[in-house]
């Protein structure tokens, strides 16, 4: 068995969308997925895109992906890597694909002089939390994430 991590390309959009949908099902949020192949292709590979993706392959077959972007820390005055989604197909879990994707993102962070590599995880996702803790990641318990979206975002922007 050989695992390979590579940058995603336009031809991977359908695979990435499948992974996004599978992840949404796992997270009990399938109804929230609005992405299409077209919108995903444009947002990941279109002109001016700030989002990146990695694909993990086992013996040439895509078994996982990571979608990420650079963020910024004012306190460090340095950019960082933010992992938006990490997904490995259920049949490939336990092979090291998730850790390989995380390791590649850590390398990207160092290659770009980033001060941080961050992500979020649902508090009920114990198997994933154990993986993150096993690699030395620490939860940021004092921080609470907030979000505006949909009608509330529109209403607030309108004043």
Written description of the protein model:
The protein is globular. The chain contains 5 helices and 5 strands. The protein has 159 residues and is an alpha+beta fold. Helix 3 links the parallel strand 4 and strand 5. A 5-stranded mixed sheet has the order 1-2-3-4-5, sandwiched between helices. The chain has helices at residues 13-26, 37-45, 97-111, 126-134, 150-158, and strands at residues 3-7, 51-58, 61-73, 78-88, 117-119. Helix 1 (13-26) packs across helix 2 (37-45). The chain starts with a strand and ends with a helix.
List keywords for this structure.
5-stranded mixed sheet; alpha+beta; 5 helices; single chain; 159 residues
- Strand % is 25-35%
Describe the main β-sheet briefly.
Answer: 5 strands, mixed
Low-confidence segments, given as residue ranges, are none
Terminus-to-terminus distance: 56 Å
Could you tell me the number of beta strands?
5
Tell me the number of helical segments per DSSP (H or I, 4 or more residues long).
Answer: 5
Write the layout of secondary structure elements.
Elements: E1 3-7, H1 13-26, H2 37-45, E2 51-58, E3 61-73, E4 78-88, H3 97-111, E5 117-119, H4 126-134, H5 150-158
Parallel strand pairs: 4-5
Antiparallel strand pairs: 1-2, 2-3, 3-4
Helix pairs in contact: 1-2
In short:
The protein is α+β, with helices and mostly antiparallel strands and 159 residues long. The protein is built from five helices and five strands. The longest helix is centred in the middle third of the chain and has 15 residues.
